[in-house]
Amino acid sequence: MNAISQLRTLTFTLACLLLSSCSSIPEGVTPVQNFEAQRYLGKWYEIARLDHRFERNMQDVTADYRLNKDGSIEVLNRGYNTKNQQWDEAKGKAKFVAARDVGHLKVSFFGPFYGSYIVAELADDYSYALVTGPNTDYLWILARTPALNDTVYSSLIQKAERLGFDTEAVIKVEHSRL
User: How many domains does the chain have?
Assistant: First the structure.
């Protein structure tokens, strides 16, 4: 195999890996069934998360979901960067990976690049959610209010631990500037 063929093979393999990872689900995680996007829309407060570079130093984090005309979901994440002492926003778009009644979406904030958004637990009244990304490095606990009942919070942390997430690394998000 010559160098050009090897490069094509490598490029094709990397493209396949990137495309498949955009909608992957962590082992053991099952997206919620009977998901109703209409009920999920609106404002959510980030209660806790596994920290990662794109939310580092962020507090008072919220996510606002709105239905677009094309059926996709507009995502507006907002938070206060304590290091830069300023509010930051990121606007994106979410699309269902398969059926619209399954809590498995892919979200993009950077053009054609999508990442998994899996609703792994959801209150019957849509008051709280446990959300994962494509692997166990990404985890969020969301609620419709800036605070969450300790019993519910503990239950979600226990579920995350059973699913293989490093719950010792979970950080709670402050909501003092809202």
Answer: 1
Can you spell out the DSSP letters for 25-44? --TT--PPBS--HHHH-EEE
Residue 151 in domain: yes
pLDDT tens digit sequence for 42-54: 999 999 999 999 8
Q: Which residues pair with 66 in a beta bridge?
A: 74
Q: What is the CATH number of the domain that holds 131?
A: 2.40.128.20
Domain membership of residue 13 as a residue range: 3-172
Q: Would the pTM count as exceeding 0.85?
A: yes
CB-side neighbour CA atoms (13 Å) of 76: 9
Closest CA to 43 of 93, 94, 77, 17: 77
Query: What is d(CA 49, CA 27) in angstroms, rounded to the nearest whole number?
Result: 19
| Residue 178 in domain | no
Low-confidence ranges of the chain (pLDDT < 50): 2-21
Tell me the pLDDT tens digit for each residue of 8-34.
Answer: 333 333 333 334 446 799 999 999 999
Please list the residues that pair with 147 across neighbouring strands: none
